[in-house]
Write a structure and sequence with these properties.
This protein is an alpha/beta fold. The protein has one domain (about 10-160, about 180-210, about 260-265): Vaccinia Virus protein VP39 (Rossmann fold), CATH 3.40.50. It is about 45% helix and about 20% strand. The chain contains 12 helices and 8 strands. It has helices at about 10-30, 30-35, 35-40, 45-50, 70-75, 90-100, 140-150, 165-180, 190-200, 215-220, 225-240, 240-245; strands at about 60-65, 80-85, 105-110, 125-130, 150-160, 200-205, 210-215, 255-265. Strands 1, 2, 3, 4, 5, 6, 7 and 8 form an 8-stranded mixed sheet that branches.
Length: about 270
């Protein structure tokens, strides 16, 4: 068995507390995620549309749907989409936006990724985008995704990924947790590949990667980061070594660039 950052060592009581933190954080910022250009745009959304194109009978689960951008992108090409999230407020925003866009095949469901209220083999495709770094227990969430997928179904994970080098990894996790108390971990590509295989997915060898710029002012405003934490993040960047500042392309206003990846896997 593979252990990931001690995720299985905490008691269920701590799980409930961290889950409550995540629900509160995103409930308060739901509208900001609907309009966020970082989340609403991207070549990854276009790639999703290409992947689901022509699958008019497919049932899709948008797991950790956030502002609903995956649901909006794929709904015109599939039979149905379930937009699933921990935050009830986020789901209310998604439902209203889907109605405004005339996407009647999108329904919402409140649930935790690690405990999905769906029958086995309910979906043809499960997609999670920029969500899993908030999950309390990613291996458990992936097991649930595997369970609710039909045999031959496709799992797509899109997320921020940590560098393989420990120094850079540590820096990324530090600024993330200061900015957002609901952050758990940005996983490395090697960790994602291992976790997907461990629960029974067959993964592709080639993983699409790209760089994503975080405009500092927008990045902290979206999560309403407290002023003292903003100061701490700026201080971390200012005091970082040259290799850290170079990797994250830290700018004078503290805007920076991080790594993202697109994983495809199949339930064999």
């Amino acid at each position: 068995m593979i252990a990931y950052s001690g995720l299985t060592l905490m008691q269920p009581e701590s799980n409930m507390k961290q889950t409550a933190v995540a629900a509160k954080q995103f409930g308060e910022t739901a509208s900001a995620y609907l309009t966020s250009t970082v989340h609403a745009q991207g070549e990854d959304l276009k790639r999703l549309q290409t992947i689901v194109g022509g699958q008019s009978i497919a049932k899709v689960l948008d797991l950790g749907c956030g502002g609903g951008h995956v649901s909006f992108a794929v709904a015109p090409s599939v039979a149905s989409v379930v937009a699933c999230d921990l935050s009830v407020q986020m789901l209310e925003v998604v439902a209203a936006a889907a109605q405004q866009r005339g996407l009647s095949n999108i329904v919402t469901q409140q649930a935790q990724a690690e405990k999905l209220p769906f029958d086995d083999a309910s979906f043809d495709i499960v997609i999670t985008r920029f969500s899993a770094h908030h999950w309390y227990d990613v291996p458990a969430g992936l097991r649930e995704a595997h369970r609710v997928l039909k045999t031959g179904g496709r799992m797509i994970v899109i997320d921020i990924v940590a560098p393989e080098q420990p120094l850079l990894d540590t820096m990324l996790q530090s600024v993330e947790i200061l900015r957002d108390a609901s952050h758990v971990r940005d996983y490395r590509i090697s960790e994602w590949s291992a976790m997907l295989r461990a629960v029974g997915f067959a993964t592709q060898d080639a993983v699409q990667q790209w760089r994503l710029k975080m405009v500092f002012a927008d990045w902290i405003a979206r999560m309403r980061t407290p002023a003292e934490r903003v100061t701490a993040i700026r201080s971390l960047f200012d005091g970082a070594s040259e290799e850290v500042r170079h990797h994250f392309a830290v700018e004078s206003d503290h805007s920076f660039t991080i790594d993202s990846a697109f994983f495809e896997a199949v339930k064999s």
